[in-house]
Amino acid sequence: MSAPELDLSVVIPVYNEEQSLGPLIDEIHTALDPTSLRYEIILVDDGSSDGSFRVLEERAKSDAKLVAIQFRRNFGQSAAMQAGLDEARGEAIALLDADLQNDPRDIPPMLERLQQGIDLVAGWRADRQDPYFSRTLPSNVANAIISRVTGVHLHDYGCTLKVMRREVAKELKLYGEMHRFIPAIANWAGVRVAEQRVHHRPRKFGRSKYGIGRTLRVLLDLTTVMFVSQYLTRPMQIFGLLGAGAVALGLAISSWLAIQKLFFAERLSERPLLLLGVLLIVVGIQLVSLGLVADLVARTYHESQGKRPYHVRARAGARG
């Protein structure tokens, strides 16, 4: 990994936020200029259908700290964040929403937490300024489920505002709705994660892109996150265990029915339990076979790309 050229990169995904962009950029400068940090602002236009990119192009002509990227079409918030992370040159990287609901003034205090040894600081909108039943309640339910399933207990997985070290950000690979699971993904890699209260403001312009339907998609992506994080390097352990359990149960049922047939002359042709036993054996064998194939795919995935199944925090001492 190359050495950072700046102290901070602020990465902002943008989708139809034409009216918010000017005030947002001004607020970021107001919040960061007094800190003497060398920083850049990276805004990624995720295929907006309004004049968002025209605003960014115009501002970039007079703002040397501004970097604007435009997607060919809408690829989603995770893709926009990933593009910004790939572009970032800062030693620390902050993620921020473009709708003015996040307060850029929260970034410097979050950066101070990095100086205290934290690797990733996640924002917590303790006093959330959103409609309760359509936004806050579904988010609270999703947060509780994600915390329980992942074991990384945070109040607010949906808050975009986060600050992290460069080495953490550069290892992230985001797609789907994976941006919501950044703290959990980072924690599984051994990253020190903390949560900090941040300001949250009512939306001034436009309308939210979130809703109850998106909560369901987030929960579906949670399944993918759990599998990738815990079983990507050992898929046989989950498929093999399920398969062995199914085969064992199927053999137990079939053996019991065989005893009834041989010693008690029971009729089996009309008993659905016979079909269940056979089905469990067949499904179990298929699951074990799937585990073998998944193991080979996982091996190919890691070896072909030179990926390692571990993450190094630090190294000390000379090498001969």
Protein described:
This protein is an alpha/beta fold and 320 residues long. The chain has 2 domains: 6-231, Spore Coat Polysaccharide Biosynthesis Protein SpsA, Chain A; 235-304. Helix content is 50%, strand content 13%. The chain has 10 helices and 7 strands. A 7-stranded mixed beta sheet has the order 3-2-1-4-6-5-7, with helices on both faces. Helix 9 packs antiparallel against helix 10 (272-304). The model has no long low-confidence stretch (mean pLDDT 88).
Précis, in short:
By secondary structure, this protein is α/β, with parallel strands linked by helices. It is 50% helix and 13% strand.
Name a few traits of the molecule.
320 residues, Spore Coat Polysaccharide Biosynthesis Protein SpsA, Chain A, 7 strands
Instruction: Summarize the amount of helix as a percent range.
Output: 40-55%
Reported by name, the CATH topology of the largest domain is: Spore Coat Polysaccharide Biosynthesis Protein SpsA, Chain A
* Sheet of most strands: 7 strands, mixed
What structural category arises from helix and sheet content?
A: alpha/beta
Strand content: 5-15%
CATH architecture of the largest domain: Alpha-Beta Complex
The count of helical stretches stands at: 10
Write the layout of secondary structure elements.
Elements (H helix, E strand, L loop, with lengths): L5 E9 L3 H15 L6 E7 L6 H11 L3 E5 L6 H11 L2 E6 L11 H9 L4 E5 L7 H19 L11 E4 H5 L11 H7 L4 E5 L14 H20 L3 H30 L7 H33 L16
Parallel strand pairs: 1-2, 1-4, 2-3, 5-7
Antiparallel strand pairs: 4-6, 5-6
